[in-house]
Design a protein that fits this description.
Elements lengths: L1 H44 L12 E2 L2 E2 L16
Antiparallel strand pairs: 1-2
């Protein structure tokens, strides 16, 4: 009987230690499912023939949506 109680105690402690990890894993899977569904929804609503972009691209240190100045800044030369 004492061995049975020890087994139950060990299993209870293992459950208490592993439960937060298991809950986090389930939450991550739910978030992944939501992201996957959102990507599928965006693909369905896209116009046919239009290229999809995943967000702003970095080109030459600027984001593609940013407006860059027409002339680059010149360093001042003190004489």
């Amino acid at each position: 009987m004492n061995t049975f109680v020890s087994y139950i105690a060990v299993l209870g402690i293992l459950a208490l230690v592993g439960l937060p990890s298991f809950i986090g894993h389930l939450r991550d899977r739910a978030i992944d499912r939501q992201l996957r569904d959102a990507e599928r929804g965006m693909a369905r609503t896209a116009e046919p023939g239009k290229i999809q972009t995943k967000g702003p691209r970095a080109t030459c240190g600027h984001l593609s949506g940013q407006i860059s100045p027409s002339k680059p800044a010149q360093p001042s030369i003190a004489t």
